[in-house]
């Protein structure tokens, strides 16, 4: 894929969905942080089902601490790996209360220091909750999940053998236009989730089919 093709691909994804966002339900940075923490190896739909019941009852670090570990588990037990996620959520809430006045820090290092929060979760929170394009060092960043990794490799938009390579290549190869840098994350996730699916991509109804370099395209 060359520069012009990448630009055309982003332009089509933009025209199809000018203001993409996460499908996780949230109304504050804290709600997004916990939803992303819960979403590892789980679907957004499954996480939303749980948080739609949890957040009306507890949507601050202190309120979740007040629920206690077992109380929290009762809300999230339908989500995979809920035992570990509940423990990490409680520890994260405790750190937010102890170190950050009960607020989510707008800082990558502080976010990544929270239990259960890795680079990807920190990137999603910085991008989606706080509107960041660049990190504390002034470098562009991107949260690469399984959908973004697959789409970048299949289309040859920015191939890479690891998520870090894909992140670096996407940042290197994406045209420097704010809306592209800001929205690519959600465009790729949504396209990967609904069209370029892992097992049977819907190439016959894909709006970037003629731009995509995947060798094993599947007609619908
Ligand atoms: S043409 Fe097929 S493989 Fe390429 S992006 Fe579209 S769905 Fe994915």
TrEMBL record:
User: Which UniProt keywords are present, listed alphabetically?
Assistant: 4Fe-4S, DNA damage, DNA repair, DNA-binding, Endonuclease, Glycosidase, Hydrolase, Iron, Iron-sulfur, Lyase, Metal-binding, Nuclease
Q: Which InterPro entries match?
A: DNA_glycosylase, Endonuclease-III-like_CS2, Endonuclease3_FeS-loop_motif, Endouclease-III_FeS-bd_BS, HhH-GPD_domain, HhH_base_excis_C, HhH_motif, Nth
EC class, as a word, reads lyase
Q: Which GO terms describe its biological process?
A: base-excision repair, AP site formation
Question: What does the entry comment about cofactor binding?
Answer: Binds 1 [4Fe-4S] cluster.
The EC designation for this entry is 4.2.99.18
The catalysed reaction is:
2'-deoxyribonucleotide-(2'-deoxyribose 5'-phosphate)-2'-deoxyribonucleotide-DNA = a 3'-end 2'-deoxyribonucleotide-(2,3-dehydro-2,3-deoxyribose 5'-phosphate)-DNA + a 5'-end 5'-phospho-2'-deoxyribonucleoside-DNA + H(+)
Q: Does the keyword DNA repair apply?
A: yes
Q: Name one Pfam family in it.
A: HhH-GPD
Sites binding [4Fe-4S] cluster sit at: 196, 203, 206, 212
Its biological purpose: DNA repair enzyme that has both DNA N-glycosylase activity and AP-lyase activity. The DNA N-glycosylase activity releases various damaged pyrimidines from DNA by cleaving the N-glycosidic bond, leaving an AP (apurinic/apyrimidinic) site. The AP-lyase activity cleaves the phosphodiester bond 3' to the AP site by a beta-elimination, leaving a 3'-terminal unsaturated sugar and a product with a terminal 5'-phosphate.
Q: Which PANTHER family match?
A: A/G-SPECIFIC ADENINE GLYCOSYLASE/ENDONUCLEASE III, ENDONUCLEASE III
Which family, according to the similarity comment?
Answer: Belongs to the Nth/MutY family.
Query: How is this protein named in the record?
Result: Endonuclease III
Q: Which organism is it from?
A: Colwellia psychrerythraea (Vibrio psychroerythus)
């Amino acid at each position: 894929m060359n520069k012009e093709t990448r630009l055309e691909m982003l332009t089509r994804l933009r025209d199809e969905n000018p203001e993409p966002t996460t499908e996780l339900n949230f109304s504050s940075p804290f709600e997004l942080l916990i939803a992303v923490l819960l979403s590892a190896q789980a679907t957004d739909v499954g996480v939303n089902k749980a948080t739609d019941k949890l957040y009306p009852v507890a949507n601050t670090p202190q309120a979740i601490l007040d629920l206690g570990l077992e109380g929290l588990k009762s809300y999230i037990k339908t989500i995979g790996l809920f035992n570990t996620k509940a423990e990490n959520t409680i520890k994260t809430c405790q750190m937010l209360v102890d170190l950050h006045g009960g607020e989510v820090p707008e800082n990558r290092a502080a976010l990544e220091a929270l239990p259960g929060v890795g680079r990807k979760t920190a990137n999603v929170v910085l991008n989606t909750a706080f509107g960041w394009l660049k990190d504390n060092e002034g470098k562009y960043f991107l949260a690469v999940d399984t959908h973004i990794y697959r789409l970048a490799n299949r289309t040859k938009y920015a191939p890479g053998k690891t998520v870090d390579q894909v992140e670096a290549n996407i940042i290197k190869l994406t045209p420097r236009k704010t809306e592209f840098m800001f929205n690519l994350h959600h465009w790729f996730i949504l396209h990967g989730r609904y069209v370029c699916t892992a097992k049977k991509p819907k190439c016959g109804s894909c709006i970037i089919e003629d731009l995509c370099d995947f060798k094993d395209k599947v007609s619908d």
